[in-house]
Amino acid sequence: MVLPPSLEVEVTRPVLVFLFGLVALSASTLAAERDSRHLVVVNGIGGEAFYRDLFHRWAVSFMELAEKHLNINPDQVFYLAEDPTRTPQRTTSQSRKEEIERILRLVAESSKPEDLIMLLLIGHGTARDNRILFNLPGPDMSASELSEWLDAFEGRRVIVINASSASGPFVPTVARPGRVVITATSSAAENQQPRFGGHFVTAFAAPVADRDKDGRVSLLEAFVYATGEVERDYERENRLRTEHALLDDDGDGIGTRTPGGEETDGRVAARIFMTPSDVNVSTNANVLALTVAARALVDRIELLKRRKQELSVLEYETKLESLLLQLALNRQAYRKGLP
Amino acid sequence: MAVQECAALDRSTFFGNNAGGEAQGNQMGLITSLKLSAGGYSAHLARFRHAAKLQAICGLVILALVSSPNTIAAEDVQTLLESGKYAEAAAAARASLDQGIDTDHNGYLLGEALLSMGQLPEALAAFEQALSDDSDHRFQIEVAISRIFLLQGQTNDASQRLQQVLVALESDTESLSSTELTALADAARLLGYDDPARYRLALRLYEQAIVRDDDNLAARVALADLLLDKYNNTEASALYKEVLAIDPRYALALFGLARSQYFDHSRAAIQLVRQALEVQPSLVPARVLLARMLLEMEDYSAAEEELEQALTVNPNSPEALTMQLVVRYLQSDPEGFKTLLTRLRELVPGYIEVYATLAEIAAQNRLYSDAVSFAREALVSRRSFSRAHGLLGLNLLRLGQIDSGRRSLEQAFRGDPFNVWTKNTLDLVDRLDELSTLRQGRFILVAATHEAELLAPLLFPLAEAAYTHFAERYGHEPRTPIRIEVYPSHEDFSVRTVGLVGVDILGVSFGPTVAFDSPSVGTFGSINWGSVLWHELAHTFHLSMSGSRVPRWFTEGLAVVEEHRARPGWGGDVDPGFLEAYLQQRLPPASRLNEAFTRPSYPRQVVHAYFLSSLLLAFVEERYGIDAIRSMLNGYREGLTTESNVSANLGLTMSELDQQFDTYVRIRFAHALEALDISLPANAPSTAGPAMETTKSFRSLWRAGGNALRAGELERAEKLLSEAKRQFPEFAGAGSPYHLLAQLHLKRGNAAAASTELESVVNINADDLSTHRKLAELYLAENKRDDAAQILERVLFIDPFEIGIREQLASIYEAQGQWESAVPERAAAAMLAPLDPAGARFRLANALAQNNEFSAARRELLRALEDAPMYDDALQLLLDIRQTLNQNEHRARAVPTE
Ligand SMILES: [Zn+2]
Questions:
Q1: ipTM value greater than 0.90
Q2: Whole-model pTM?
Q3: Which CATH code, of 3.40.50.2300, 3.40.50.720, 3.40.50.1460, 3.90.1300.10, is assigned to A36-279?
Q4: Closest-CA residue in chain B for A301?
């Protein structure tokens, strides 16, 4: 049994999702979806060989994952490496400050409004005379310089991930409405090399990171997964945790360690996916209807959850199960309808 | 209940009248001590007073007694008194009084001398006679009279007198002498009993007395005594040392330092108290303390000898009589106890400390319900006796009576806000409220909510198994329910055991209550909590059987034996350090084992003592059987001493026991003992040269083997380590030859050989988490699922809170279709904050469904899908389960009801 799409529930969800879905739908080609996402990976100075290798590995594995798993157009993946000779075919340029500025301007010019731009910074950070820096070959890049360059991305959705040590102060400087800023540490004092980056780059391909099991890892889910793994690392090794990642997506410049749930931070990140939405996989009208119906059911479940306190356990569970069973049948039909 | 902040009595309060008081206090303290150390003159004077001068005075006394006209000065009588020559002091004072010389001072000194010899009425008469309004010694005399009143139980008279003394503070105190200030301080201190604020006043007055005359050592010692009584041992001990730096033979300071060390459970206490007695053999309280320490070592006859000597000096000493009472009590002599108690009560009806001391010692001997009765008895005599309220509260808690215990502690704290133990325990009780209580069968589990649920499925069955096993083995069943407290913080656990043991421990049995650190604590590294529980429950049986009269070494040794018998690898093991200590005779013989528990002489001695005791009990069981052990436990209940118990049940004298046990140990570890070269220091540098190897001692083989392994010389390493292992196969501590050989085999890619080595480790050492995990990993790599599961199941008794282990175990069970076993592991994994909560719930639901628990599975699925509605696998399972449930309901309806 499949229920007809119920439109009245759409308003109960943040409009963003629905619009996002429709925009994608009307654009409606795989290529368009692919081209709407851009990735810039910057590797700062590694210092010791150990970190040079580690940072390089993180960068390369994330780019591979972006192209293969997240289906991002390889032409829109840029790599600024500390040592461009290492993987010349992958590398766009050396990660010098002026090169970063140049590439960012390039991406800004070639992108469209509503496009998603992710900038991933991997390396060491330092705080010097109140200036928070990301260490590069040549002059370092400061948080305010980066923030200025990002102004060119007006109307696009920008995600900045600074996985370096002492990266926390990037949040207040770089945060703006329309930007998501993630840092591996909370403050300049957290200046040990963090592990956050390593876990973050694997999150998008880790099935366990998909907490709500909708088949895609949202930016928020990736953050939660990476911080959870960090916590476990430190616990396992019985060491005092020296890194607490932050996320800011409401643009107020105050990052949150535990976004999602009650926090304002996390609401936007929860709706950002690096993978294309499954709606675009098929243009079959029936499948489309099923998808819309499924969303409606999910919305009704959300509504029911909000009423949980008013209902008896029995009532709640019966209603919940009934909705879930409808959803289960919907998904069965959906899978059959796929080519 | 929110308790107010615990007051601290420390010296800084005197100077703490503005911000930064503490720093100022320290500075002033520094100035005082500088003055003292620079004051060669006063130091010299003091030393002179107590050494050379004493000899001179003794001559004078003899002279005075022989030819009465030559009386000696009152100051010299005082020196006699301070050096414990009470009879001489009394005689000299009397001679002066007869001559009408310095009557108030000599009268006071006579009173003090008589008081020290226990002649209360005579002392009182002397004091009253010496009392006059214009006397320089009025305050001292008033305080002395009050002390007698207090002993006689005339509490009101005493406090009125003491209040009266303190009236002097209302006028100018500038003119008061250091001695007078000290007397005022003494008065304030005595009043502190009913009004703790007076302690601060006392402290201030002692400080003033010291400032006024820094040669007044008595004031310093009195101040230190006050600080020590108010649990500020750090400052007290520093003060005693300060006094001893001025006069190394100042007996009261030596005694004070001994008490301070005793407070810290330090072994130095006994040396210091002996030193004090050497200087002043008539120092009764020091003899009493010495007797108490000897009792702790189970040396009853030596203790009694000390008490005899004390009573020779002062036949009515309340402290000495109390300690005699303790001896009667510990030796289960109810008749003697009653007679002596009656006498003591008649003699000094106001001396209620007798009950507090009895309560304290009862608790130290794990006789908690007796401790409760004694504390209650004290309160009958004096409602406001804070120390008794505190003892009552602590021991009620030990008996598991939390609410009444809390009420008593609250009362104690109101009366004595300086007592940190009371304060900490009250805080602990508050935190106990936040813990969860689960009851199952004979046991009650109290633990942090999230831990209780995870522990319960493992803990309850183990506890029941222990009970059943012990009940059969000992032919005895302690009262149930037994309360098991699992503390999520080591600090809280430590509070629970405060005052009982001097070393940091991780588990305790109070009999009906056992407590230990949660496995999540990790203060001591990885620990097998299952073996800890087993050990503590064994104590519960021993305590119940012996009426709590089993000595510590006996029950500890026996509890370790029980661990060894219970599961492979449980219980402490032998290591080279233990055998070296044994060979070097750093461990006491069997007959004096308690010493190592109560006053360890080196840091690891307690650990070694546990193992040594376990050997002793194993020896007894091997030779004489469990019946002898049962019979000894009953013997202790009947009040037998170890000596008579050993003689009655083993037919041995203590020295025969020592000898036979020594032989037993030497035979049992013959190989290892031979291979230990104790001529080498234990931490000899690892110069793994050929010279070392030729000694063929265990340590050098071990070390050289490790070095060879690191250098990649696998063959040589194997030879050396195999030989080390052969010499000392019982040793599987961290980095043992087994561990190293396992590494070696892995380097060669021989996983099977490595597992064999690691199997040996886990069968000796059940605390070694990483070896268990490594072994499980090796088994899994070899596809030995059953073996891996078995090892991982053991791991749960080391770390039940590691999600990875739970998931690993569940997967193994599932792969083998053992769904019933998989369910609890999946449930635990879902509780352990997984990164993927919906996934964990789904896997639990799946295991439940496979185990035909459909309703439970449905509920888990609903929880999983609530947050992850698009979870296809979960949705599919929900559909399947709904179908099955509908069919079942349908079938149920079709069957006619009976
Ligand atoms: Zn024990």
A1: no
A2: 0.77
A3: 3.40.50.1460
A4: B866
